[in-house]
Amino acid sequence: xxxxxxxxxxxxxxxxxIPKEFxxxxxGARNLCGLGYCPILVSLKSSVRSxxxxxxxxxxGASPPTAVVGESGYPRVNVYxxxxxxxxxxxxxxxxxPTEWHLRLGLKDIIGLRSRLVHASVRVDVRKPEVLYEKExxxxxxxESPVDVEAELRRPPKLVVTFSPILxxxxxxxPAERVRITDNPRLHPVLEKLLWDDVKAGEAAWxxxxxxxxxHIIVRALTLGFLGRRxxxxxxxxxxxxxxxxxxxxxxxxxxxxAMGTVNNVLVFHASYLHNKYTVVVAPGRxxxxxxxxxxxxSLWNPGSVPTAFEVRDxxxxxxxxxxxxxxxxxxxxxxYLRSIGRQARxxxxxxxxxxxxxxxxxxxxxxxxxxxxxxxxxxxNPTRRELAEFLMSRHSVPAEVIEKVVSKVFTPQGKSxxxxxxx
Length: 424
Hints:
The protein is α+β, with helices and mostly antiparallel strands.
């Protein structure tokens, strides 16, 4: 299978046909083809119409809340506040609630909900996030419950849905003439206190995570410019902010995990959702995580006739072989699991994406499905090399060389952990 890539960085294609391995690596986010836009995401956008019905330019409803900071035109960017017209109260929450979607809703259900959201946009300089506070848009985006919104759009929105490999699908949008928050946002007590503290963004994100604040609210607090030192607060594009919060939380957990003793057994976990299959193998040894992602033929990012795969790795210090939002999203629940059992380990994650995954819905499904696999309990304990290979072949339709690579990683001896060196 010549298409398999392991930790390689593709070069920019100046012209001609785009190799499918570029698409698997890029997923519309890194412009590896050199076109300046993603043909696949553009075609998806034009193929899905919004189910939203809107009369005139007035929008009245409750934001779930959902607030997205764009990146086009940086440092002057659009901030989008999503509102389902005519929907109020607790019902609005479902329009932006990955934890409620997970394992309950299918692709069409999620896209249907998201397509009914109208995104009223305001233009903001990322260096002046206080404007969002003055407009009340910022605090509305941090609420734990839906917030009533009235907006007047400058023009009717185009009825299309926009897709991203990191963010949930986004419904129609249009610039707002005015946005009025007619409800009081309800903030988590820990977040309400930290909003005005003069602390670094990483420290604030960790405090919010430990205080039980929802991951997506932490992301919105960072991206809307509420976290960080007083003189250095900045709004952050949401696509960057999701990966940043994952990294902030992971780096803090890894500090402690590196000093823990190693697990004593090989444990195998598995879960699937939205035609994405994940197997997680935890093995004795000092910390590292390897992620092998396989896209089946005729799938979203692999229009070819054979599977395409690539690998991302991090080491004992958490250094990445290549930056990848999917890997970083999967690593967070892995570290949560290791922290909960008080052990470090070598971890292998195999992700298989089936052709039925025709629309990307964001990295949340990776984070939550890997977490679900680990919380559901191990399906195998201390399998032999052959037993592990047979398990992987029974759960995944991936090339034999990928199975062998995972198995070899599990049964490759590693050096001592920091804990073991100290104890010896």
